[in-house]
Please model this.
Amino acid sequence: MSKRVLITEPIIPSVIDKLKKRYQVDVGERGTYNNEQKLIDDIPAYDALLPMLSNPITEKVIAAGANLDIIANHAVGYNNIDLEAAQKYDVAVANTPDVLTDSCAEFTIGLMLAVSRRLVEAQKYLLDGKFNNWEPLGFLGKELNGSTLGVIGMGRIGTGVARRAKALGMQITYHNRSKVDSELEKQLDAQYCSTLQELVAESDITTLHCPLTEETHHLINEEILSLMPEDAILINTSRGPVVDEEALAHALHNETIGGAGLDVFENEPDLHPKLKTAPNCIRTPHIASASHKTREAIGMLAADAIIGVLEGQPASEIPNLIQP
Ligand code: DGY
Model:
């Protein structure tokens, strides 16, 4: 009997077709598998799971997967998966690095431009019929050229953002667990800040590209926000809980910072009520990687990892296994 694969949401059809050529594939309905119990109930029937970042792949889910050989997350981030439990129950885990770097980096630049040049607010003004006269003082924003960008997390996406920002004339500073190699620093003309405090105090725009871990939970909190210049902009395309949303909403409402561009939220898909009404804040529904090309590439990488494991390939030959 052919092996069974569960894809928890509809994804790009070519990816589903690729897996269907080899296996019996079921595709969940949108949002159904955001529920832990639903996963626990259904997982015993499957050999492979292709979950979304919104699905809680907890120890209980993994323990219930008696036949489960691999979890191939449809994302580069894997904070939704209990890696220790996967190891304990001998289930391989894969993610999808690299293929979404350009899409996420471009989107981050888009948010930076949109917030600093007040695009959403300006469109609303126009559509509300308020554009009656060209205004020399209307919608004055800040140019990226000549501004300082503080990158927190200089991994693939952080570096992609820094490269683009440099091309736009920004000065690059960064904070990371360790310095990046000197060749890259030279290319980006980037300054390393050993403390987060120093980085945010110097940056016109601070952008987050670190994974969500115990150390990065609420990395951006009241104290850090209070150190930002009053026209500073915070961009988050990493994971929502890296930012204390209550503190951010407070800073935006009190205008102690200049604005924010947020693609991710602490309790997705819910939006903090005070962030909903915050001024100078652009909010998007976790779409930084949402280009057709990238979402197909993400799916294909996850599918390749599933095929590799189910066909018994050696772990070293299987793309993107975080742990075998
Ligand atoms: C990821 O892959 O982790 C992204 O957040 C998806 O856009």
Notes: The chain has a mean pLDDT of 97.
